[in-house]
C-alpha cells in the first residue's frame, strides 16, 4: 500500500535535467523478460540523465527485520562502508539519489535512512555495467558484488551472483565463508507513480538474516 506521506510528492524532474535513452538495464534481460515489466518500471529503468545529473526518490521505510546473526552482520560490514541497514525504525523517511558517473559509465547511489533518534544512516555504493554478469555493485575498500537481473511476476529482481575484492586491475573472488550469503533486491511497481523496494539477505546456514522494504516516489532533485 502506498503511504499517504508520499501522495504529495512530485514525479517531475527539474527543467534543466536532460533525459537520455538508457539501454544498460535492458541489455541484461531477454526481450521476453523485458516485455513482462509494467510500463512504469520499463520507463524508470530506460530513463537516463546526463553525466553528473541526479534522480532523487523519496520514500518511507515500511518494514525492517533482523535475526540476531543479521544484526551483527550489519554492524560488522560497517568496516567496508556499511552497505546494509543497521536500524530497526519504521515509518521514517528514506531518500535515494542516483547520479550518473561519467568516469565509469555507471551510477553512484546514495541512500539516506532517517532514524527516530540520532543521526541518519548514509550508504554509498557504485553500480558498474561490467563483470561476468554485466552488472556489479561496489561498496567500500574495493569490495564488490556481481548481480544477476531477472523479471519474476512483473517484479524486477536483482540477485547476488558472486562477491569479490578489487585490487588495482585484479578482481579476486571472495570465498563463500567470507560472504553474507544471498542478497536479493526487488523493485515492484505499485501504480500511480509509486514503487516498493525490498532488500533481503539469506544465509545458507543461518537462514533469513535481514529484511527491509520501503515505498518510494520520484521527486524533484
TrEMBL record:
InterPro entries: DUF4166 (IPR025311)
Domain DUF4166 intervals: 37-216
Pfam family, any one: DUF4166
Domain of life: Bacteria
Protein name as annotated: DUF4166 domain-containing protein
Organism, scientific name: Bradyrhizobium niftali
Taxonomic lineage of the native organism: Bacteria, Pseudomonadati, Pseudomonadota, Alphaproteobacteria, Hyphomicrobiales
